[in-house]
Amino acid sequence: MNKPVLRAEGLELSFSGVKAADNVNLEVREGEFLAIIGSNGSGKTTFLNMCTGYLRPESGKVYLGDAAITGMAPRRIARRGIARAFQIPQLFTDQTLLTNVMLAIASRRGIFQGLRRLDRTAYIDEAHELLALFSLEDHAETIAGTLPEGLRKLADITLALALNPRLLLLDEPTSGVSALERFTLMEKLMAALKARQMTALFVEHDMEIVTRYADRVVVWDAGRIIAEGDPKQVLRDPQVIERVVGAV
Amino acid sequence: MLQSLLPLLIDGLANAALIFFVAVGLTLVFSVLRILNVAHGSFYSIGAYGAATLGLWLVSAGANPWLSYPALLLSAVFVAALFGPAIERTLIRWTYGKGEAVQILVTFGLFLILEDLQRMVFGVQSLYQDTPMTLLGITQIGNVVYLNYQILLIVLAVLVLVGLRLLIKHTRMGRLLAAVVADREVSEAMGIDTDRMYMIAFSIGVFLAALGGALATPTTGVAPGLGAETMVLAFAVAAIGGLGQIEGAAIASVIVATAKVLAVYFVPALDSVAPYLVMLLVLMVRPQGLFGVAETRRV
Amino acid sequence: MSRLLVLFAAAAVLALLILPAAMPSSQFIMTIAIAKGFAALGVALLLRGGLISIGHAMYFAIGAYATAFMMKFGVLADLALLLIGSTLVTAVCGLVFGTFLVRFRAIFFAMLNLAVSMVLFALLSKLYGLTGGTDGMRVATPAVFGLELDKAAFDDILYYVCVGLLVAIGLLIRAYLKSPLGYALMSIHTNEIRLEYLGVSAWSVTLIAYTISAALAGLGGAMAALTIGHVLPEYAYWTESGHLVLTAVLGGIGGVAGPFIGSVFLEAVHVLAVDVAADAWNMILGAALLAVIFFLPHGLHGLLEKRAEPRKSQGVVE
């Protein structure tokens, strides 16, 4: 078995009495594509928020490799190699898509570069390459905030990929994307991950996508992990069908 | 010891009362409209000028001096009626949904206009009209002497605090206001006339600021520049209590006034700076204020 | 930069250079306009990050008083050293206040800046022994590279120094805005969360911008102190801050030239309107601010820019 990239131990967090994380223990292994499923409000996004420092768990620890990152600020965790794509796309809405990606590249290289221009050839070229991953080249000069929802979602993933992270967290990458385009998106995403040998964890509602692409699946219910393992087996589990699959 | 503390206490509470009127208006408007009105302090000074002018006119007309009390209230009502609906309907309404930068700039522009307007109407000299204060006289218990007017201020502040709470809890309009505060989109979907709620809340805010100014004239008088100072002081109090928190504003008024009174007695040089120091301290530890609720954006 | 804009900029600089010869009476006003333009540029810089400082006149005042004190005590009493020294002093003040202030956004940022500026105003007015209280301080005419000059000759030199600095610093700020750090500053306005998730500290980005903006205002203040020859607590008063905000918004925050355009325009109006509107200047400022926000969200500079670079112009109002 591969060693874990990310390890969560006994995470606990509740919001006004409701448990959003109830003794969560989870490992993300090197090179795998791990899916998280569960009904709305079961604590999936909260888990991502705790892993990236947006929320601090009341108890428990998060490790990236061997280093404890519990409660670090999001920017420090990002610098250590966890990138995140959001359920609601988080873009620099009044800048062009190209500028968005160049800013992500510049952030990876270190934002303090004196008075060197952001739009230098090296960055422009790399940004175009990244935009090409999801066929966004034609929209390079579009103001990000004016893009349709589906494309903003892709742009958001592109920004996360631009950081070239050790671990990529994707919060419902296919939500807001039309049913027809979901599989195209996933094919492109998988190709990009493979090419970079990147580990990724994704929250997903579409069971077909989970079965087809995930190496492993973790099932969430009321802040707890109730099942995990091979997608085909886990999704046949009656308890999972009752609590999660049926509810979606 | 007690004898020296009592006047200090009354001084502090009377001070707190005056600050509370403005701060609670500011915080009320913020909680309903989600706008911090930078021109709020101007309504305080306009209320003060109105009350002083009216009071002086009554004196010169040889009217019954007891009429100077309704004159204070009349001034506040007049300012609220004149400015409240008109400004909310035009300038403020235009900024809804426009982003905080625009709201700050627009209310700041209004602030600049109102400052000069006061100079034009009331001149640049300071006005002083203390009939309401002298009429009530003083009370002497042993060596302790205090102004009865100070007691009146404290009582009025408590009445306003309780009144606001009752208004919100037990009247139809208050419940509608509370609904708008809780969730404006749902309120709108439920058919609540939010536009009207905004206008009412804004006008109450103007009234409270003007009332604070009117009640302050007998003790401190009124001079140009008062609006800006009051605005920053009211903001300090509202921020310490937590923006949008009515009881928070009340407690913060007492804290700030206490700090001010202590400074006057022990470190006079820090007198005018004391409120800001308290604000800086509080915000360093709790950026959302003592009773404010921290808002986290959902991602 | 489009060719049209380069042309405009070159024409503007040329006009500034020949103006004193063509219209000697305008030189003093133009020096003041450039000085306030620097301060307004500082305000505009923060506006790019969505941050409104309604207390920025305090840094203008700090720069001016720094110059006054250095002249009074004969420290660094030479034009170049005074300008550099005052700018550095103000930058340090900006850095110190900034460490606390840039944690805040929106209305908190605006009001806390106002609060600090009012404390400074109170101190400048009250500490009579140190600052001369409400009488302010006289600023003698300094030497220029060791050369003792009379006031008129000094003012000539100061004017051209101001124009030179306008060009040089304008270009530096332009480069800063085009650098990753400049774009990061704009991102503070649009999506701070994404910025943090890219591994960038929003606090550092804003603190750097804040320090630069304070330094710009301080430089402007030093220029004003030298040409006026006197400093007053009123430099720090909140109406002055309002003036700076209007200047920035009026000129437009999309480019470096905007605040200077706004400043020249406002000074000209001030001179022309001084007879009719001596008592109503704040009212005019306020009304103009509202008018600009309602009708000209990209400022005067936006009018130029809209034709030249339609997609990149940035206004306060989206």
From TrEMBL, chain A:
<dbReference type="Pfam" id="PF12399">
    <property type="entry name" value="BCA_ABC_TP_C"/>
</dbReference>
<dbReference type="InterPro" id="IPR051120">
    <property type="entry name" value="ABC_AA/LPS_Transport"/>
</dbReference>
<dbReference type="InterPro" id="IPR032823">
    <property type="entry name" value="BCA_ABC_TP_C"/>
</dbReference>
<dbReference type="InterPro" id="IPR003593">
    <property type="entry name" value="AAA+_ATPase"/>
</dbReference>
<feature type="domain" description="ABC transporter">
    <location>
        <begin position="6"/>
        <end position="247"/>
    </location>
</feature>
<protein>
    <submittedName>
        <fullName>ATP-binding cassette domain-containing protein</fullName>
    </submittedName>
</protein>
<keyword id="KW-0067">ATP-binding</keyword>
<dbReference type="Pfam" id="PF00005">
    <property type="entry name" value="ABC_tran"/>
</dbReference>
<keyword id="KW-0547">Nucleotide-binding</keyword>
<dbReference type="InterPro" id="IPR003439">
    <property type="entry name" value="ABC_transporter-like_ATP-bd"/>
</dbReference>
<dbReference type="GO" id="GO:0005524">
    <property type="term" value="F:ATP binding"/>
</dbReference>
<keyword id="KW-0813">Transport</keyword>
TrEMBL record, chain B:
<feature type="transmembrane region" description="Helical">
    <location>
        <begin position="197"/>
        <end position="216"/>
    </location>
</feature>
<feature type="transmembrane region" description="Helical">
    <location>
        <begin position="12"/>
        <end position="36"/>
    </location>
</feature>
<keyword id="KW-0812">Transmembrane</keyword>
<keyword id="KW-0813">Transport</keyword>
<feature type="transmembrane region" description="Helical">
    <location>
        <begin position="43"/>
        <end position="60"/>
    </location>
</feature>
<feature type="transmembrane region" description="Helical">
    <location>
        <begin position="96"/>
        <end position="114"/>
    </location>
</feature>
<dbReference type="InterPro" id="IPR052157">
    <property type="entry name" value="BCAA_transport_permease"/>
</dbReference>
<keyword id="KW-0029">Amino-acid transport</keyword>
<protein>
    <submittedName>
        <fullName>Branched-chain amino acid ABC transporter permease</fullName>
    </submittedName>
</protein>
<comment type="similarity">
    <text>Belongs to the binding-protein-dependent transport system permease family. LivHM subfamily.</text>
</comment>
<dbReference type="InterPro" id="IPR001851">
    <property type="entry name" value="ABC_transp_permease"/>
</dbReference>
<feature type="transmembrane region" description="Helical">
    <location>
        <begin position="149"/>
        <end position="168"/>
    </location>
</feature>
<feature type="transmembrane region" description="Helical">
    <location>
        <begin position="66"/>
        <end position="84"/>
    </location>
</feature>
<dbReference type="Pfam" id="PF02653">
    <property type="entry name" value="BPD_transp_2"/>
</dbReference>
<keyword id="KW-0472">Membrane</keyword>
TrEMBL record, chain C:
<feature type="transmembrane region" description="Helical">
    <location>
        <begin position="244"/>
        <end position="268"/>
    </location>
</feature>
<protein>
    <submittedName>
        <fullName>Branched-chain amino acid ABC transporter permease</fullName>
    </submittedName>
</protein>
<dbReference type="Pfam" id="PF02653">
    <property type="entry name" value="BPD_transp_2"/>
</dbReference>
<keyword id="KW-1133">Transmembrane helix</keyword>
<feature type="transmembrane region" description="Helical">
    <location>
        <begin position="157"/>
        <end position="177"/>
    </location>
</feature>
<keyword id="KW-0472">Membrane</keyword>
<keyword id="KW-0812">Transmembrane</keyword>
<dbReference type="InterPro" id="IPR001851">
    <property type="entry name" value="ABC_transp_permease"/>
</dbReference>
<feature type="transmembrane region" description="Helical">
    <location>
        <begin position="280"/>
        <end position="304"/>
    </location>
</feature>
<feature type="transmembrane region" description="Helical">
    <location>
        <begin position="107"/>
        <end position="128"/>
    </location>
</feature>
<feature type="transmembrane region" description="Helical">
    <location>
        <begin position="45"/>
        <end position="67"/>
    </location>
</feature>
<feature type="transmembrane region" description="Helical">
    <location>
        <begin position="207"/>
        <end position="232"/>
    </location>
</feature>
<keyword id="KW-1003">Cell membrane</keyword>
<dbReference type="InterPro" id="IPR043428">
    <property type="entry name" value="LivM-like"/>
</dbReference>
<feature type="transmembrane region" description="Helical">
    <location>
        <begin position="79"/>
        <end position="101"/>
    </location>
</feature>
